[in-house]
Amino acid sequence: MKKTIEEHADRFSEIAGEYDDSQNSDEYRACVSLVVEHADPSADDTVLDLGTGTGAIALTLAPRAKRVVGRDISEGMMGEARAKAEEDGLNNVEFGNGRFREPNVEDEVDIVVSNFAMHHLSDEEKREAIKVVAGLGPRKFVLGDVMFFGTPDPDEPFYSPEVDDPSTVGHLADVLTDNGFSLTAVKRVHEQVGVLVAERSGEQ
Ligand SMILES: C[S@@+](CC[C@H](N)C(=O)[O-])C[C@H]1O[C@@H](n2cnc3c(N)ncnc32)[C@H](O)[C@@H]1O
């Protein structure tokens, strides 16, 4: 991680009010749609959204799920998410402090999702985080993020080398399969953006 948790939290809290309006790239929108489509919760499912931010994924999934738990390190971002949940009359979604490697979740979780957030962690920290996700016992983990399908071009706009630390698709695939998941879909949105759908292998 190129910044501390506190630095990332402060950085996002400062921009929380403008965050939704700033997320207007085709690639970000495509990722949101793919994560929502592949999460596909039923009315019995509890969904955990890690790095939930202002709740783009959590609030979209809430009407279809039993319960959605959003976790983030930025109170400012979650304040926006809570306000939108109230405005939309959603009472089955809850936002609270938690991080990838310490999600602070008591509930049984059926599906874990994360969009445009895990790239703040280093390769090794992502390995630790995915182990924690697997330990929660979900049947599915849908990860949308900045990830490298080829050799990254540092001039591309999808990450800032001073704050972001995206992994290769190969690293993420290795870590997911090492932790008992099978990749059931790999969606390339851009050479630096994609969605991985990881499901529990049959023998788990
Ligand atoms: C680019 S925003 C994405 C928010 C949302 N998932 C979306 O799709 O719009 C990244 C979010 O990840 C959160 N974040 C960064 N590092 C984190 C960590 N270690 N654990 C949990 N959340 C983290 C930030 O606070 C921020 O809200």
CATH-derived architecture: 3-Layer(aba) Sandwich
CATH topology-level name = Rossmann fold
Number of distinct beta strands: 8
User: Mean pLDDT, as a whole number?
Assistant: 94
Which CATH top level class fits? Answer: Alpha Beta
Tally of individual helices: 6
Small-molecule components bound: S-adenosylmethionine
Through-space gap between termini: 31 Å
| Number of individual domains | 1
Instruction: Give the H and E element order.
Output: HHEHEHEEHEEHEE
Please give the share of residues in helix: 25-40%
Biggest β-sheet: count, sense, barrel?
Answer: 8 strands, mixed
CATH homologous superfamily assignment:
Vaccinia Virus protein VP39
Low-confidence stretches: none
Q: In one word, what is the shape? A: globular
Content of β-strand: 15-25%
Helix/strand-derived category reads alpha/beta
Report on this model:
The model has no long low-confidence stretch (mean pLDDT 94). Helix 1 runs parallel beside helix 4 (75-87) and helix 5 (123-135) runs parallel beside helix 6 (169-178). Strands 1, 2, 3, 4, 5, 6, 7 and 8 form an eight-stranded mixed beta sheet that branches. The protein has helices at residues 5-22, 26-39, 56-61, 75-87, 123-135, 169-178, and strands at 46-50, 67-72, 93-97, 111-115, 140-148, 167-168, 181-190, 193-200. The protein is an alpha/beta fold. Helix 4 links the parallel strand 2 (67-72) and strand 3 (93-97). The protein is built from six helices and eight strands, in the order ααβαβαββαββαββ. It has a single domain (5-200), classed as Vaccinia Virus protein VP39 (Rossmann fold, 3-Layer(aba) Sandwich). The longest helix has 18 residues, at 5-22. S-adenosylmethionine is lined by residues 5, 8-9, 12, 23, 50-53, 56-57, 72-74, 77, 99-100, 115-117, 120.
